[in-house]
Design a protein that fits this description.
484 residues; mainly alpha
């Protein structure tokens, strides 16, 4: 059974990750009507360009830092030393990236005024020390400190964004919420550190391993950010970027629910690997595959079944194309879910970066080539198809590279009950969609009935994770009653 700390950290991380995506989702129905698809496209395009400079400035520091802190969880001096070394390097690399960004975008161009605001986004990332708390498995810290900031940003959006002329105000709200959210993590930092002698700091020793992790991150960004950039560059109508952005938001929210276990498992896997416990590594891997697919299958089929009624209700008039994009993109819930387990939870914590790099590089190459062809042919629909095929490439390559440790047939065999139960759920949901005409009522009924049936089917089949979850809830209730 998954340890209690992992279960708790998953919930904390899930709440935070969902909150991060829920903030724009809560405001999206309002913003899609007030700002319009074109302004949302401009925002998405300029943010995607800024993201490249954040990526190059960050190198592989975030993922590397989390792993290194996890290795040193019980050694306060060396983890303090490692933290300061990584932090100083982050300041230097992001500071350099900011200088290039300023000289290239801020002085001229159609969107220069927006790029000036995004300077704060780069500064916010230089202050991000979430890797330290994640390495310590202190996920509760990041959740509660950022929650208040995110809630305030929602309130500010409704107060200050009133028309299509308020795009600047919306961008300010976005970057400032990230800025103050990252600063808030510094408040209790001293409780986890001790003083380190300046002469002991060796910053350059971290450069090579962060660059090694940086290479796959570049490749990953190609098929997570470049698609928006290419749509904006190839297609004259910026609304196409807006449609793609809105579809991605929905699917990525659902993906967060399925893969948040990954962020929690990275430090645990790294610490287990450092202790040489291979048997425990395999146990964690099997649990992760089951957990991710337990959620990914019903989420994929669920969003497809309600998309035709969800999109017009949520986004308003003029976003019909988003329905098709959601249906096309949704299979990445499965492919990214599995590649998250293999790549992020296993290959990186166990220092098999080369295999991870190969997989994401090939995925990026596939995505780039298909984007050039498909975006010219089908605009945002083409980008969506390219994304799905790229993610399928990554997952397939990873399974091939770890074929001696992980058998794809074993994964399918151990999780086929989730697929079959989700198919039954999907059929019932489609029938309800046809029978119930009111959009809101249909969505509510579909969600409640479908997922109730899904989990009942798993209980009938005596699924291990479901039974463990039920036992956990029973024990919580029992303990609560005993404490009354």
């Amino acid at each position: 059974m998954i340890k209690k700390s992992i279960a708790k950290n998953y919930i904390y991380n899930l709440l935070y990750q969902v909150l991060v995506i829920m903030v724009p989702l809560i405001t999206t129905p309002y913003l899609s009507r007030v700002l319009g698809a074109e302004n949302i496209g401009i925002y998405s395009y300029t943010l995607s360009m800024t993201t490249y400079f954040i990526l190059f400035g960050s190198l592989g520091i975030t993922m590397y830092g989390q792993r290194e802190i996890a290795y040193l969880q019980d050694d306060i001096y060396n983890r303090s030393k490692t933290f300061f070394e990584i932090l100083i390097m982050r300041f230097i690399t992001l500071g350099t990236s900011l200088l290039f960004f300023y000289n290239i975008f801020v002085h001229k161009g159609q969107y220069a005024i927006y790029y000036k605001i995004f300077i704060l986004e780069i500064l916010a990332n230089s202050l991000d020390i979430s890797f330290f708390f994640q390495g310590l498995e202190e996920f509760k810290k990041t959740v509660f400190r950022n929650s208040l900031i995110k809630i305030i940003s929602v309130i500010c959006t409704f107060i200050f964004v009133k028309s299509s002329k308020n795009l600047i105000q919306y961008i300010y709200i976005y970057v400032l919420s990230n800025f103050f959210g990252n600063i808030s993590l510094w408040l209790n930092l001293s409780n986890y550190l001790e003083k380190v002698k300046l002469k002991d700091l060796k910053i350059l020793k971290h450069l090579k391993p962060t660059i090694i992790l940086f290479i796959p991150q570049i490749a990953t960004q190609i098929y997570t950010v470049l698609d928006k950039t290419m749509i904006g560059s190839i297609v004259i109508d910026k609304s196409e970027v807006g449609y793609y952005e809105q579809a991605q938001k929905i699917v990525k929210l659902l993906l967060t629910v399925a893969t948040s276990i990954g962020t929690v498992m990275i430090p645990r896997m790294a610490n287990t690997f450092a202790n040489g416990n291979e048997k425990k590594l395999k146990e964690y891997m099997n649990k992760s595959f089951k957990f991710v697919l337990l959620l990914a299958y019903p989420l994929m089929f669920g969003i497809i079944s309600i998309s035709n009624k969800f999109v017009p209700l949520f986004y308003g008039i003029g976003y019909q194309k988003v329905i098709y994009l959601i249906c096309i993109i949704s299979p990445i819930l499965i492919t990214i879910g599995m590649s998250n387990v293999i790549g992020t939870q296993y290959l990186l914590p166990t220092k098999q970066q080369k295999k991870y790099t190969i997989s994401v590089t090939l995925g990026a190459l596939v995505n780039f080539i298909l984007n050039i062809i498909f975006i010219n042919l089908w605009q945002s629909v083409g980008a969506s198809i390219a994304t799905v095929l790229a993610e399928l490439t990554v997952t397939s390559v990873q399974f091939y590279l770890v074929r001696d440790e992980i058998k794809v047939l074993d994964v399918i065999k151990n999780t086929n009950k989730y697929f079959l139960s989700a198919i039954i759920m999907f059929i019932i949901s489609i029938l309800l969609n046809v029978l119930i005409k009111n959009n809101l009522i249909s969505i509510i009924v579909q969600i409640i009935v479908s997922f109730t049936i899904y989990f009942i089917l798993l209980i009938i089949e005596k699924d291990e994770l479901m039974l463990e979850g039920i036992d956990l809830i029973k024990n919580k209730i029992k303990n609560y009653k005993n404490n009354i």
